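Narrative of activities, Objective 1.

The group set out to show that a structural description can be obtained from nothing but a protein's sequence at a throughput compatible with the screening campaign. Below is one input-output pair from the validation batch, recorded exactly as produced.
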Amino acid sequence: MKKLLLLLPIITFVMNLHAQEEYGEFLDNAIEAAAKYDVENYNINLKYFVTALEKDKVTPETLPEIFYNKYLQCIFASQLYEIEMPEEFRESIYQFAKYGADNRNPDAMYILARAYFDGTGITKNEEQALFWLKEAGESGSAEAMHLLSSFYQYGVHFAQNEETAESWNKKSLETLLNRAKQENQKNDLTLLGISSIYYDKKNFEQAQIWAKKSAEQGNVKAMVQLGFLLQKSDEEKGIEWLEKACDTGYKTGCTMYESWVLSFIASHYSVPSEGKPDYAKKKEWYERLIERGSVTAMYLLGINYQLEQDFAKAKEWYKKACEAGNEDSCQSYEALK
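Output recorded for this entry:
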């Protein structure tokens, strides 16, 4: 019995260690999934983590700091990538963010501010949101500084003040550059933040450099940003990055990809060359869009075939587009029957 009593603390320690390893694994997986806009895996791992906390009766006060900070990163990732937070997690987010904010954690303050802006786990409250946003910025949150800069720049929530906007922008950039140095440029979120600030400063060369570093680490938002930045210097390369973002399922990436490709087709292949438009090239691009769910491209491919006098193929694509909800295609299909 005495030996068993002596072993109990060791057994408890080992079990706690194993549980904590799981916490880290769930959070790392969720953060990685968010960066790739893998919403399903993000939610699965977040659920595993929150369920584990409940099972182990872990509170904000008892969660080890390393996992607490990772949880904040995980929440921030959902806000950044516009991943809708399931209702079942919202109360936990508010509780953990409020605890950190009350204990002067800048990242928690920023997340709490966003929670009050969005109504995540709590009733929307602009006054509280702005209070915690300023607290976060003054306590060292680069993300809060950047948002404050934007608010002052465009006169949102505050009176427009370009001098104050530039001051917050400068502080945010300095903070992120120092963070990137400490992280050996391995944190895609930090790199994306730097790119965004350079973009605000209209330093597009630096914005492109930092967006590329983040995109190459798999950050979907950086892929979109890089694609946009390449619009004038290397249009097709920019489209490639938007296509990569879209292929992850990132809705913003798909929307921009479709819009840009349709514009690209119109400017490069719809103008007659040697007497007629390049129908073959247009077809290639429409098919790439269709592979990624573009109903508009189905309709336009039907038009493409009709202009080539291939009415059977035109009807086929009009019908597919019509069945997918494109009303113009329905009319074109009926006209060819």
